[in-house]
Write a structure and sequence with these properties.
single chain; mainly alpha; about 40% helix; elongated
């Protein structure tokens, strides 16, 4: 009976060798700024309230819509300048 060959697993190796002398700090920073990448990290208690990023985006859009509505209600009309009457 022949033994089966072990297939490489997806598990991590016990040790990785990496040459830190060739590492470049912030290598992709400018590209991310140019592409407009924006990352927001949620606190654990806030992350529990949303199941995915689509739910977070929907909640933020709803909040923005509500703030636009209430801002229009609370803005005061500008006062018209009084006309000077001759004395």
């Amino acid at each position: 009976m022949k033994r089966k060959r072990q297939t490489p697993s997806d598990d991590m190796r016990l040790e990785y060798s990496f040459d830190y002398t060739t590492a470049v700090r912030g290598k992709y920073y400018q590209r991310l700024l140019k592409e407009g990448a924006n990352v927001a990290v949620l606190e654990p208690d806030g992350a529990e309230a949303f199941r995915d990023s689509a739910a977070v985006n929907a909640a933020l859009r709803s909040l923005l819509e509500m703030s636009e509505t209430t801002r229009r209600l609370t803005t005061r009309p500008k006062r018209a300048a009084r006309k000077k009457t001759p004395a």
